[in-house]
Amino acid sequence: MKLDVIPNQPVIAATRFILRPLRRSDPGLLAMYTSDRRLAEGTSRIPHPLPPGTSEAFVARAMAPSRHEDIWALDGAEHGLAEVLGVISLTRMEMAKPGISQSEIGYWVAPAFWNAGFASEAVKTLIAANPHNARSLFGRVFQDNPASARVLTNCGFQYLGDAEIFSVARKALVPTWTYIRQQG
After folding, report:
1. Among 65, 82, 92, 170, which is least packed by CB within 10 angstroms?
2. Is residue 28 part of a domain?
3. Which one, of 134, 124, 111, lies nearest residue 183 by Cα?
4. Is residue 144 part of a domain?
5. Cα separation, 125 vs 116, whole angstroms
6. Which of 101, 102, 119 is nearest to 110 (CA)?
7. Using omega within 30 degrees of 0 as the cis cutoff, is the peptide bond preceding 49 cis?
8. Do 23 and 38 form a contact (C-beta atoms < 8 A)?
């Protein structure tokens, strides 16, 4: 048996799940969840309908040593929950000043697990661990997704401004709210 090791990406314990790097066994569940139109349309990068091989390519990119985005699965298996409840990511941003690290947080939870607090728990856990040692964290949500905005504000993010981003699933520019959280 071969174990895949993701460099510099820790496993982080939350209360009801662990945040763990993606692994080669994840594409099936990821494809099942992300093929749901409601989930895809809540993101900027997930297409709908989901083309074959998309989840496998996503996992391969997440496991690449040269990646600039760290992606964790919300894995509830040790607590009697699903092996994948959703994902959360940190993307390294270009530094504004030398020595100042900034990252953008992104997340989604599978529709079967919506309204259970998993997104808030994952964001709080990742903020506390701060694996990128970021001084500033940014988050962006679609304006028609107030639940996702509440996740960020409940985790200490402050509203920064409006913008828009292209949604692959919607095939359109979608208005967003941008948030920032300064770390200690």
Report:
1. 65
2. yes
3. 134
4. no
5. 15
6. 119
7. yes
8. no
- pTM > 0.85: yes or no: yes
Instruction: Name 151's Cβ contacts closer than 8 Å, sequence gap at least 6.
Output: 107, 119, 120, 123
Half-sphere exposure in the Cβ direction for 141 (13 Å, CA): 21
pLDDT in tens, 69-110: 999 999 999 999 999 999 999 999 876 566 678 999 999 999
In a domain, 182, yes or no: no
Task: Provide the 10 A C-beta neighbour count for residue 164.
Answer: 13
Contact 118, 85 (CB under 8 A): yes
Hey, CA dihedral for 106, 65, 28, 19, is it positive or negative? negative
3-state SS assignment for residue 131: coil
Does residue 116 lie within any of the structural domains?
yes
- Which tokens in the block code for residue 165? 């981003």
Domain extent at residue 36: 12-134
**What CATH number does the domain containing 74 carry?**
3.40.630.30
Burial 38-64, CB ≥16 within 10 A → b, else e: ebbbbbbebebebeeebbeebbeebbe
Residues whose CB falls within 8 Å of the CB of residue 125, separated by 6 or more in sequence, listed in order: 12, 13, 14, 19
Q: Return the amino acid letter for 143.
A: Q
What pLDDT is recorded for position 94?
75
Whether the predicted pLDDT of 123 surpasses 60: yes
